[in-house]
Design goal:
This protein is mainly alpha-helical. The protein contains 13 helices and four strands. Helix 1 packs antiparallel against helix 2, helix 6 crosses helix 7 and helix 6 runs antiparallel to helix 9.
Length: 289
């Protein structure tokens, strides 16, 4: 195994473990890991970058070859070394969709959605392309899963275009556009692993409601008032979230922001973290809010 491949695996394990432990933004760290992977393919020997990419990329038969099974994971961090367009657009979409979604559901849940969606996308690609001499690489399967999960939990959340912030679309419409694009890929010869995209998206939609207890939103909405939240908004971050709650018109999105607020707020009596139970909002020491 090439030293660059070993280094990539170490970067993947290190960034994932650190993000899980510190609960720091995985969408940022995974972006950094993808950039570092690209650099590790280029820097040691630019003339050997295609050979390194081939070792990191996934081929369906890798599933029965123990020496190459790591490609199931490394392929999700690998991008086309022929240019930077592939990685640029993947990381751009991860920034636009991944970061706000991670803020809603929390880092650890986001890591599970991201990695499991990418894994399922890779396996679906292998299922449909088992007899083909093809390889797959890129974060698109994982990002598709994040999009699917976001749509499943918050279908009416508005998403704006990067260069036209005033033009917004509900996420369910973005999802329909994404599916239409996959149909175009399937009908043409674009060399794009649309199977991984669709598999990842469906996986994200299936995983999200299992990880995120959506009924909690209704309980939170019933048990806590805006006046109570205002008393808890002691930090700039909590004040910013409170403004989002006050300005939000969509009930499901507003409830999600309330839940996010509670996850970051502290008990006014003892300063310990708050949690939502079936009947109340209380801190770890039992003080009722």
């Amino acid at each position: 195994m090439d030293a660059a491949v070993v280094a990539v695996i170490a970067v993947i394990i290190g960034t994932t473990a650190f993000s899980w432990w510190k609960q720091s933004m995985f969408s940022v760290l995974v972006s950094i890991a993808c950039v570092v992977t690209m650099l590790l393919m280029y820097l040691p020997d630019p003339d050997n970058r295609f050979a390194i990419q081939f070792q990191l990329a996934f081929a369906p038969r890798d599933l029965i070859d123990p020496s190459h099974m790591t490609s199931v994971i490394t392929s999700m961090y690998t991008h086309d070394v022929r240019g930077f367009t592939h990685i640029f657009f993947n990381l751009l979409v991860l920034f636009l969709i991944g970061m706000p979604f991670e803020e809603r559901i929390g880092t650890r849940r986001f890591i599970v959605v991201y990695l499991l969606s990418g894994l399922v996308g890779t396996l679906v690609f292998a299922l449909f392309r088992w007899n083909d001499l093809v390889i797959a690489f890129g974060a698109s399967g994982s990002i598709s899963g994040v999009l699917g999960a976001f749509i499943r939990l918050y279908p009416h959340e508005k998403m704006s275009l990067l260069f036209i912030p005033s033009l917004t679309f509900p996420l369910w419409l973005v999802g329909l556009g994404f599916l239409a694009l996959q149909v175009v890929y399937a009908m043409g010869s674009y060399g794009i692993a649309y199977e991984a995209h669709l598999g990842g998206m469906l996986a994200g939609m299936a995983i999200a409601p299992i990880l995120v207890k959506t009924p909690m939103h209704k309980r939170v909405k019933r048990m806590i008032s805006l006046s109570s939240l205002r008393k808890l908004a002691k930090t700039p971050e909590l004040k910013a979230i409170l403004r989002r709650i006050e300005d939000e018109d969509l009930p499901d999105v507003r409830s999600a922001w309330v839940e996010q607020f509670i996850s970051k707020a502290k008990c006014p009596h003892c300063g310990s973290p708050l949690k939502v139970t079936k009947e109340s909002v209380m801190c770890e020491k039992g003080h009722l809010l």
